[in-house]
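Inverse folding, one chain.
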């Protein structure tokens, strides 16, 4: 079942349960899907990879918003954002642990033969493709920098 179909089904469930936070998050994702489809000009559906990237982008936006709200002491605004993140994350694959990401980073460094920070782009490219959808870019970047600095 495609992610779009799953999201539509979850929207129906959220409507019946009168879960406004879930409904708001799911509507935002549905809207993002429609925007992406019309933006590319393609009449066909989005690929699974494109759908995952859209959901990841939505989660990232909410995480950034929640962080800003918490920083400003607005817990009342941060809570709905955090709840929406939980709703959206159920559509994403399980995130890898930092240890597993580190293993992939070390393997990419040896594969490329990276000697220093000048090779960071090569390593990031390989690791990002390998772990697409399973790891946050910030964590990958931090681990690559850590290992190339040594």
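Residues assigned per position:
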């Amino acid at each position: 079942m495609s992610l779009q179909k799953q999201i539509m089904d979850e929207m129906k469930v959220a409507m019946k349960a009168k879960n406004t936070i879930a409904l708001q998050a799911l509507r935002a994702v549905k809207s993002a899907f429609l925007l992406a489809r019309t933006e590319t000009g393609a009449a066909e559906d989005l690929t699974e990879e494109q759908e995952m990237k859209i959901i990841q982008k939505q989660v990232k936006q909410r995480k950034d918003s929640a962080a800003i709200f918490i920083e400003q002491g607005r817990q009342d605004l941060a809570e709905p954002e955090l709840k929406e993140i939980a709703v959206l994350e159920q559509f994403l694959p399980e995130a890898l642990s930092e240890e597993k990401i580190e293993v992939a980073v070390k393997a990419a460094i040896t594969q490329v033969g990276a000697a220093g920070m000048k090779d960071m782009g090569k390593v990031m490219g390989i690791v990002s493709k390998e772990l697409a959808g399973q790891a946050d870019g910030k964590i990958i970047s931090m681990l690559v920098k850590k290992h190339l600095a040594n």
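The two ends are 45 Å apart (CA to CA). The chain has a mean pLDDT of 86.
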